[in-house]
Amino acid sequence: MNDELVADVAVIGAGVVGLACARALAQAGQSVFCLEAEPSFGTGISSRNSEVIHAGLYYPEGSLKTTLCIKGRRALYDYCDARRVPYQKCGKLIVAVTPEETERLSTLEKQALRNGVENVDAVTPETARAMEPDVTSYGALLSRETGIIDSHSLMQAYLSDVEAAGGMVVFNSRISAVRRSSDGYEVELEGEAERFRFRRLVIAGGLSAQHIAGTLIAEDGATDSDHAAIPKLHYVAGRYYGYSGRHAVRHLIYPLPVDGGLGVHATLDLAGQLRFGPDARWVDTENYDLDPICPPEFVNAIQRYMPWVSAERLHPAYVGIRPKLAGPGEGFRDFEIHTSDQHGQEGLVCLYGIESPGLTASLAIGDVVTRELS
Ligand SMILES: Cc1cc2nc3c(=O)[nH]c(=O)nc-3n(C[C@H](O)[C@H](O)[C@H](O)COP(=O)(O)OP(=O)(O)OC[C@H]3O[C@@H](n4cnc5c(N)ncnc54)[C@H](O)[C@@H]3O)c2cc1C
Questions:
Q1: Helix/strand/coil for 22
Q2: Were both Cys, which of 102, 201, 225, 308 would link to 185 (CB 3.0–4.6 Å)?
Q3: Can you tell me which atom of ligand 1 is nearest the CA of 20?
């Protein structure tokens, strides 16, 4: 083993959240290595999402998902302006597709108010139709703060910030295990006999966070799982299909949320291309296969608010998998940011269940982690 400390902190995972943590830690003056298994950054959950900058209206007030989304979103728009990361604050309409759903819409509006989300308004069916003539609804909630972002450019900007602050992002470095030592943590890399030592450790491994944390053996021989601190992980897969053809959609269009997700919505990319997804299916394995023919239930979900969309116009795009902490029907579960309060280890932060709105919240998560490790 190498007796020298490699750096103050190792961040495991170079997705949008790991990079945001590495950036914030490096800018706070810590020496940082961000260790990524793959040959490039952001190939995990961070490249398989809707690329939406969320307003923060869905989740309970005071939850991490709400507070970090709102803080992160405000910081993200400023950051994108400063660093010229492409984005568009296009706004979104959450639509009621039956008369009964209008009640759920007003519940959501009240939640948005309680959360302190700016620029959210209920709109009549007529106004919704004037804004989006090709969308059917019994009324809608308009969120003007919602936007879309080029998430790859965002991660590239975070990575440049890490390097500018003296940190390093190291690719092709798959961590096989982590261990507690007398003055920090030892990291074992797959295929390397040597272990590398860091004073502090951040586990931002996305779908692998639980697995990596489970390899940690404390000096007393106990594992994090012995302390029952690692939350169970559920995979919830979401399929995306792109739309081929002309369209006149200008806002993001969301139905009301479903168990496991926000409902099959219509998003735009920065080139104006229309894309639908993700649906929500609890699965047992990490499988990204996608049926080339869009399944009927997926088409039906779209046709509830855009009846003119036909299966023939939909082409397979990609699958994303949410690292969920809630099982089917279990309702809301928050992000979990585990510190010594949960696992009893100093200098260790584990990020669990960082599903949506993790991209939006990334800068705010980076700040929380940095405060914890300062
Ligand atoms: C379907 C879907 C839609 C979403 N839509 C949105 C949205 O519109 N807006 C929004 O704000 N959020 C959205 N999210 C959430 C957002 O994408 C995630 O919160 C965010 O990308 C998580 O980033 P991460 O860095 O934690 O994980 P990841 O991007 O998965 O990064 C983890 C990294 O760790 C690496 N890694 C894993 N194991 C190891 C190991 N042993 N050693 C070294 N490296 C390792 C992986 O290769 C990976 O690069 C969505 C998520 C999903 C699944």
A1: helix
A2: 201
A3: 25
**Residue in the block written with tokens 């990575």:** 159
The single-letter code of the amino acid at 179 is: R
Helices 16-27, 151-164: axis angle to 10 degrees equals 30
Check if 10 has its Cβ closer than 6 Å to any atom of ligand 1: no
Q: Is the CB of 366 under 6 A from ligand 1?
A: no
CB atoms within 10 A of CB 128: 25
Gap between the Cα atoms of 62 and 47, Å rounded: 28
Paired strand residues for 235: 283, 323
Ligand 1, residue 13: give the atom nearest the CA.
34
Query: All domains of the chain, ordered by start, with CATH?
Result: 5-48+153-232+332-372 (3.50.50.60), 92-144+234-324 (3.30.9.10)
Alpha carbon separation from 326 to 246, 253, 280 (Å, rounded)? 38, 25, 13
Report how far ligand 1's centroid is from the alpha carbon of 256 (Å): 24
The values of phi and psi at residue 235, to 5°, are -90, 130
pLDDT tens for 219-230 read 666 665 555 689
3-class DSSP state of 154: helix
Q: What is the pLDDT of residues 136-194, one digit of tens each?
A: 999 999 999 999 999 999 999 999 999 999 999 999 999 999 999 888 999 999 988 88
